Automatic annotation (TrEMBL):
Species this protein is from: Streptacidiphilus jeojiensis
UniProt similarity note: Belongs to the LytR/CpsA/Psr (LCP) family.
UniProt KW Transmembrane keyword: yes
Record flagged with keyword Lyase: no
Residue ranges occupied by any Cell envelope-related transcriptional attenuator domain in the UniProt entry: 124-279
Lineage summary: Bacteria, Bacillati, Actinomycetota, Actinomycetes, Kitasatosporales
Name by which UniProt lists this protein: LCP family protein
Length: 441
């Protein structure tokens, strides 16, 4: 049976030389064709290999992202317990785009945390920091609240429908009495600063975060031997691991004068050192270093629904990409010994109200003890040192805040406006995140 023209073409592919032409080599015409087919087979295998690699990478990223999201604990109860926005502080228009995040270090001894104290003890806020992010995200203030400060704790609603009684007590008792919601309500009543988000951090997660970055440098004037926190360290500059870091930020009786105020200063020193380590070690730009840190961090926190995914936390972090460490100010709310008990604190006035007003209105906060002699966290530009504002100036700032919009009304033309002029303010005792850990603060 004669072959079809198509069969003949398949068996004898064209060689590019006309039939009957002199010098034609029938065997040679098949060589380019075989080479051509071989090249395409190689291309196909390479493409398939790359495809598998990309699919594998995508699956790995997806699984990693899913795991990180699963790590995060979400607290949906606190927002309900805080009640309607009308019962909470108003927000000044000039501070509309600023963010206030309350960070609570719980001293619960449940589960894995039982190794760090009495497992039968009740949970209190061992560390409380109000993190204020300026509206342009180019400066920030981390204000520590003394746990021993005597304050008015309001009556707080609990998840079971009951209410606690209002009482005058130590600030950290608010967390014991009514959890995160009662802590927020107490702080909002005290400072008139609206809290936008919150994070509760536990001990084990903190330890794992320190290990994830390879340890953090600290500086000690004297050797430390604290049996309660299992902390034994020599004097001087040194790098400590997670377990040691936990003891370092929690130890009280065996370091310095044993006061909570000094411990807060030590915590601020540690946080600034941690920021420097993350920046200098290239953690944020190295996936192999970043993922363990994210895994530890997300496993350590309980947050409100506004921060309960990796995507939301990433958006918050990327909004701070232009924040230099010398514009991150760490300080303690001005305090002094409580008049009726020197072992307790009270807020020093008018300095405390002046600081609260400046944060409330997204104004510069100056601190002494920075590497250049002075530093400030400001929504626009650094402010130079100046005399303290008068009580009347503080009152004016409070009135400006009270005149602000209720909550965070959207679409306001004034919401995104920066302050027309930075009001000169007092200089508070504190440090900036770029300050050397062995420098006095």
């Amino acid at each position: 049976m004669p072959e079809s023209p198509g069969d003949e073409q398949d068996q004898n592919p064209p060689s590019g030389v006309e039939d009957g032409a002199e010098g034609t080599d029938p065997g040679a015409s098949a060589i380019p064709y075989r080479h051509h087919r071989r090249r395409w087979r190689i291309v196909r295998w390479v493409a398939l290999g790359l495809g598998l690699v990309l699919v594998g990478a995508s699956v790995t990223v997806w699984l990693g992202y899913r795991k990180l999201n699963h790590n995060i604990h979400t607290d949906t109860t606190t927002e309900k317990l805080l009640g309607p926005p009308a019962l909470r502080p108003t927000v000044a228009p000039v501070a509309y785009n600023a963010e206030n995040i309350l960070i609570i270090g719980s001293d619960s001894r449940d589960g894995a945390n039982s190794a760090y104290g009495d497992p039968n003890g009740t949970a209190r806020s061992d560390t409380t920091i109000l993190l204020h992010l300026s509206q342009d995200r180019k400066s920030a203030v981390a204000m520590s609240i003394p746990r021993d400060a005597m304050v008015q704790i309001p009556a707080c609603q609990l998840a079971d429908g009951s209410r606690t009684k209002a009482q005058f007590a130590q600030f950290n008792w608010a967390f014991e009495f009514g959890g995160t919601a009662c802590t927020i309500r107490t702080l909002e009543n005290l400072t008139k600063i609206r809290i936008d988000h919150f994070m509760v951090v536990d001990f084990n997660g903190f330890k794992n975060m320190v290990n994830a970055v390879g340890g953090v440098q600290v500086c000690l004037a004297k050797p430390v031997n604290d049996p309660d926190s299992h902390l034994v360290l020599p004097a001087g500059r040194q790098t400590i691991n997670g377990n040691q870091a936990l003891g370092f930020v929690r130890a009280r009786e065996t370091i310095g004068d044993g006061s909570d105020t000094e411990r807060i200063g030590r915590q601020q020193q540690f946080l600034s050192s941690l920021v420097q380590k993350v920046e200098s070690n290239g953690v944020l730009f190295n996936p192999t270093k970043l993922y363990p840190l994210l895994d530890a961090a997300t496993s350590a926190i309980t947050v409100d629904p506004g921060l309960n995914t990796v995507g939301k936390l990433y958006d918050l972090a990327t909004s701070l990409k232009d924040l230099p460490s010398d514009k991150l100010v760490l300080l303690t709310a001005p305090r002094e010994p409580y008049v009726n008990d020197s072992n307790r604190d009270q807020f020093q006035q008018p300095e405390a109200d002046q600081l609260f007003a400046r944060i409330r209105n997204d104004e510069p906060v100056q601190v002494s003890g920075a590497t250049d002699g002075s530093a400030s966290a400001s929504p626009s530009a650094s402010a130079s040192a100046s005399p303290s504002t008068s009580p009347s100036a503080s009152a004016s700032a409070s009135q400006a805040s009270a005149a602000g919009v209720q909550g965070r009304a959207t679409g306001s033309a004034s919401a995104s406006a920066a302050p027309s002029s930075a009001t000169p303010g007092p200089t508070f005792t504190g440090r900036t995140a770029n300050q050397d850990i062995c420098a006095s603060s």
